[in-house]
Structures are given as structure tokens and as C-alpha cells.
Amino acid sequence: MVETPPERWRPPLLPNPAAGKWDRSLAPLRRFFDIQAGSVWRDLAAVLPDVRGRVLDVGSGAQPYRPLVHSDATYMAIDTEAAKPHFGYEAPDTRYFRGGVWPVEDASIDFIICTETLEHVLDTRQFLGEASRSLKTGGTILLTVPFAARWHFIPYEYWRFTPSSIDHLLRDAGFAGVRVYARGNSGTVACYKIMALVLPLLATKDSSALLTWLMRIVGLCLAPVLIVFAVLANLSLLGRGGNDCLGYTVIAHRASDTKHDQS
Fold this sequence. Notes:
The protein is of the alpha/beta class. Helix content is about 40%, strand content about 20%.
């Protein structure tokens, strides 16, 4: 499966805050059907509006969560230079970099956002070490990672994390007060999997035009099923998280006894 050819269907990119009015108006509808993205938005919307100081968005992509950051905070975005060729992301106010060292000064950030990025990082120890280096003492990191959501191998996805592994990695990097929250439960996952069978039919593009339209017609016939399970999935997010979930949202604080402080 490592040599699996490129996916025929990919979910549309989250719109950049600077995108057109039409794209921004469709963003809530996209989050309604993209349960993974919607669940991340829901968790960040409960935290980011209250954050002040310097906010760093790591692996920022199209900066979809920037509108949640309070106007009194200073928003900064960084991403790897591979973001455009691999994902199609390019934002004019993002600082792109190469290698594992972030273009951020030591102890200069109050809050780090890192959504659906850690699973694409081969050297998680170095990555979280950079987060610890960049944060002020007591600063906060908010991570989200997938769990039961689909394998996203573009360009590479290396890991799926459990709460225990997340706690271990963060504490090893000098973080404390690690809190891990499940996004969704077995009901959410079941709805998500059913929706994942229908959505590709609507967006399929096969080499055969006839087969493409036949699959789209089948997808349109199943559209009511898609809507019903989208409603159920969103309602399930109102309940408690479970062991079988779409992913995890993690909050931790930079401890005062890290190697950076001791140097």
C-alpha cells in the first residue's frame, strides 16, 4: 500500500480567510459534511476566541482557523515549503521554511495551534522540541490528531496516536498538564464511515466518462442518506467522546523546567 497511486478523490481544501465571499459562505456547509474538519473547528472555536498574545499556527495550510483568533492577539503562520506542491496550500502571509527548525525566536510565543499535522511529521521528538523552544514558560499548545478518520497519505502519514502516546511525547518534550479529549464517539465514526462511501461517488472522476456519470447518479440517489448521517454525526458530537473516535484534541502547557530554561 506504500506504493498506492494518488487518490482519485480528495476533500476540498479548507478556504483561506482571505478567500472570496462565496468560498467563506460555503465553509460552514463544508464543515457540516466534513465531520473531521467540523469537529476540529468545534473544539478550536471553544478556545481560540479567549486567547491573547502571540499565536503561532504551525502547519497552517490555508489558515482556516485564523478567523477564530481574537483581534487583540497577534497571529503568525508557518508551514513547510512542501505545502504547495503536496497540498496546494499557499497563503501570502505564511512563512515557509525547510528542515526541522522553525523560523521562530526562543520563548516568543504564547499559544501554538497545530491541527492535523503531527501525523505527517516523521521526527515527532524534534517537532515537539521546537514547540517547547518557541513557547514562553507556561505557554499553551493545542494539537489535533486523527484516529479513526481515513488514512491521509498525502504526501505521507506516518502515525496514529493514542492518548497514552500523546501524553508520553508531550511530557518528554517538556510539557505538563496534558489533557486529551476525544472528538466524537463510536456513533460519530459509524456515520463518518457511511458518509465516506457516498461522498466519493459524487466527486468521482474516472477515465471512462460513462462510468463517471453512472457513479455520480448513484451518488445523487444516495444523497438523502448522506444528509441523514451528516445530521446524526453532528448531533453525536454534542455527546461525550469515546474510545472509538475521529481523533483527539490535546491541550498542554510548557513546563518551567525544560532544558531550554536550564540553558
